[in-house]
Write a structure and sequence with these properties.
By secondary structure, the protein is of the alpha/beta class. The chain contains 29 helices and 12 strands. It folds into 4 domains: 157 residues, no CATH class; 129 residues, no CATH class; 225 residues, no CATH class; 141 residues, 2-Layer Sandwich (Nonspecific Lipid-transfer Protein, Chain A).
Length: 792
């Protein structure tokens, strides 16, 4: 009884403390309440959403509120997301035991009432009075309590990837404002100008009216292109239906455009709709594109509304050349389909079974034609928080592709039949209790496949692997050579072999490329549970290992194990002996070697052999030869900037300690005169003893081996910091960064040239870098995400 009474007493104390929390807060929190500044008066004229409000949202809000990791699911790429509002349910939850119901705009709910029933609440309207609308209160809080210009954020303001968003409701806002007075919106930046605030406040006071989006007026060329492509996708014959399904599963993620329909492309998405061509598109909502639609459907093209941010710009052209290419690849040869596949477990987990009737050469060549697009889908895709994929890859590596003529899965039907059943992938069954058993089953199949592959390649290529077996882009296709950069929890891909010779190189054949695409794109569910995500991560680890083993076949016998030991140091070596299929270190290589550094020698041969399709054939900033460390085709002032920045490249942090102070992605804007500027990206390539494990990355981190890649242009959608420097001071910046072995040294460089989140020109400079890319790469340019911007 005494224990029970004590328990009741404890509960009473808890309830009393909870009830008294508000009144006691001032006693418990000794910090003096900051004095709010006066707010600019709301605009009195009728404020236009389209002309006055939308540009502010795109300039100051969209950099954080886009993609699946938009704080509180408040997505602002289009008006549908703004009207839908916010949610307290987090999409990214690594410990979720049950899959979450998807919340994709324009797909999973088509009405505002539907979203309200799903728990989304308005940020534009108040249940009590309009002046209490969340958006208005958030921007007012920011305006009342600004941060000092270009100051470092206080430690109490949490930013970055791991920030725990508050997602407060209207009733909770007063407590939030009291506890977080400096965390109004936009969070941790220089905020809105007086005019921007006045317009937004006036618009909210006037009822936050958002006009209905006008119907898209398609041009005659666009209408004809849509009709042409929808006719292709909706053929009635079995061959046409199977090809359409394969194409849909490979294009569903892209933003499609018609290059022949005008100078300013409009973008479209490919959907399965319950309505045919000529009627309104009504999407069939399935979690994955290869899930059973459950009813008759039509493939349809729907215009994309709103803004496509930089991280979402995964573009694919549809023109007459592509149409002819599809016809030549898929329909010229004589092949038949007896029965169309279903949407069961096997069909979803093993596309090699599902589409076995389609010639493998056609499937592989279609992917090779736009290899950068396919790699971009799983490296640069809209999942946004890509650690499921990125913590299993190194920070910098090159990717090559096996030529179709040398890929046994393409050329040897007997081998293909044996291999196909072993190429299924886990993740479809997300039962937690069965996860271990599923993993062991798929691991065994994978290793059996690698053993089969090794046996057949030794038999079919007795002289060994050769550079002639690598796809050369048919002498003109620049998709043949790619460079991938990892930026902790995101990654990017560029054409060409950029940077110094990397530690690892991938050589992907058709099964590896297709498996990666299905594992990380088609079958990956960002709303899935922990079992699904773990199985996805573990199997991608095997795919990476397969790409590496494929490459080391080019190295001389007896040297391969030593190279892999360098890639799998410490516990990685142990895992190699337990999990991965053993390496073939005995069969010959057809390549000739003359040095004791075969990997470096082989990489040099690759650079020499594939110059015609290597957009980075000369990378003087990172591969400086004979003092020629600048681009000869650039103006003199850019050449000088090239030469200065090149001194930061390709050196380990052990000899250039300032590298350790830099984040993963740093934009450097170099200004010359009144109107000229150029942009570089400094990429910190973090070194690890191995990337074979899901956890413990910091334990495997080797900071003394970090290097910097200086990329002439922009790569990466999530800048971690920016420097803005006059061209005549670039040498001083480089010198300061070179010597910044200590934090205080780096902070001096930040004070001089750094653009902190609170810099008065933060937004102006960020958008000018976007404008510069718009001039250089108009299809790739888009608004950057600053959720990962560092607080230096």
């Amino acid at each position: 009884m005494r224990a029970f009474l004590s328990f009741l007493s404890l509960l009473s104390c808890i309830f009393i403390l909870s009830a008294c929390q508000d009144s006691a807060r001032s006693l418990l929190d000794p910090r003096p309440a900051p004095t709010p500044l006066d707010l600019p008066a709301p605009a009195q004229h009728p404020v236009s959403f389209t002309k006055e409000i939308q540009p502010i949202i795109e300039a100051k809000c969209l950099s954080c509120h886009s993609c699946f990791d938009a704080p509180c699911q408040l997505k602002l790429e289009n008006t549908g997301g703004l009207l839908r509002g916010a949610s307290q349910e987090a999409i990214y939850n690594s410990m979720r035991t049950k899959a979450m119901k998807p919340t994709r705009l324009g797909v999973d709910e088509l009405t505002l009432d539907g979203w309200r029933k799903r728990g989304f609440y308005s940020v534009l309207q108040s249940d009590k009075e309009q002046s209490r609308a969340l958006l208005g209160r958030m921007i007012s809080l920011k305006k009342q309590f600004p941060l000092p210009p270009n100051s470092k954020l206080p430690d109490t303001i949490e930013t970055g990837f791991s920030r725990k968003n508050q997602c407060v409701s209207e009733e909770e806002f007063d407590d939030y404002a009291h506890d977080h007075p400096y965390e109004g919106m936009p969070l941790g930046t220089s905020g809105l100008t007086d005019q921007e605030y006045s317009l937004l406040a006036g618009w909210l006071d006037q009822g936050a009216v958002i006009p209905d989006e006008p119907a898209v007026n398609l041009t005659r060329d666009e209408e004809q292109a849509i009709l042409t492509w929808e006719t292709l996708f909706n053929r009635k014959d079995k061959r046409g239906q199977l090809v359409a399904r394969w194409l849909y599963e490979h294009l569903f993620l892209s933003y499609l455009y018609f290059p022949e329909a005008g100078k300013e492309p409009r973008f479209f998405e490919l959907l399965r709709s319950s309505t045919p061509t000529g009627e309104e598109v009504i999407p069939i909502a399935t979690v994955s594109p290869n899930d059973d639609p459950g009813r008759p459907f039509f493939y349809r093209l729907r215009p994309v509304s709103g803004v496509i941010t930089h991280k979402r710009r995964i573009l694919y052209p549809l023109d007459q050349t592509k149409l002819q290419r599809i016809d030549a690849l898929f329909f010229k040869d004589d092949w038949t389909v007896d029965n169309l596949p279903g949407y069961g477990y096997t069909e979803r987990s093993n596309p090699f079974v599902t589409f076995s009737a389609i010639p493998a050469r056609a499937r592989y060549q279609f992917m090779l034609d736009e290899a950068e697009y396919f790699v971009r889908t799983f490296i640069h895709g809209p999942v946004c928080r890509g650690q499921i994929a990125t913590d299993v890859i190194r920070d910098h590596f090159w990717t090559l592709f096996q030529s179709p003529e040398s890929d046994l899965f393409i050329t040897d039907e007997a081998y293909r039949d044996k291999a196909t059943t072993l190429l299924g992938m886990p993740g479809q069954d997300d039962n937690l209790l069965d996860a271990g058993e599923n993993w062991l089953r798929y691991l065994k199949r994978h290793n059996n496949y690698l053993a089969l592959r090794q046996q057949h390649y030794v038999q079919q290529q007795p002289q060994g692997a050769s550079l002639t077996h690598i796809w050369n882009g048919d002498g003109q296709n620049e998709n043949a050579l790619l460079t991938i950069f990892r930026h902790h929890n995101s990654a990017s891909v560029v054409r060409g072999l950029a940077g110094v010779i990397p530690q690892t190189i991938w050589l992907m054949d058709y099964p590896l490329l297709e498996q990666t695409y299905y594992q990380l794109v088609v079958n990956f569910d960002v709303f899935g549970n922990v079992a699904h995500q773990i199985l996805t991560r573990l199997y991608f680890d095997l795919i990476r290992n397969g790409s590496e083993q494929n490459f080391v076949r080019l190295l001389p016998a007896g040297k391969r194990r030593a190279v892999l030991n360098d890639w799998y140091q410490d516990l990685g070596k142990l895992k190699f002996g337990i999990i991965y299929e053993d390496i073939d270190d005995k069969s010959p290589s057809a390549e000739h070697f003359t040095t004791d550094h075969p990997k470096q020698e082989l990489a040099s041969h690759i650079l020499e052999r594939f110059q015609s399709v290597n957009t980075m054939a000369a990378d003087p900033l990172n591969r400086c030869l004979d003092g020629n460390c600048s681009r000869a085709d650039q103006p003199r002032w850019i050449q000088q900037a090239d030469h200065a920045l090149s001194s930061l490249a390709a050196q380990p942090a052990a000899s250039l300690p300032g590298i350790i102070q830099l984040p993963e992605v740093t934009f450097v804007r170099v200004r010359h005169g009144q109107n000229e500027r150029t942009v570089y990206t400094l990429l910190r390539d973090r070194a690890h003893s191995n990337v074979a494990f899901m956890l413990g990355e910091e334990l495997r981190y080797q900071p003394g081996k970090d290097r910097l890649t200086v990329y002439p242009g922009i790569t990466g959608s999530y800048p971690n910091f920016m420097f803005d420097v006059p061209a005549h001071q670039i040498g001083e910046l480089v010198s300061a960064l070179s010597k910044a072995g200590k934090t205080q040294d780096f902070e001096r460089a930040v004070e001089t040239w750094g653009i902190r989140r609170t810099h008065p020109q933060f937004w102006q400079i960020l958008h000018d870098i976007t404008a510069w890319q718009q001039q250089q790469q108009p299809l790739q340019a888009g608004i950057f995400d600053v959720n990962r911007y560092e607080n230096f």
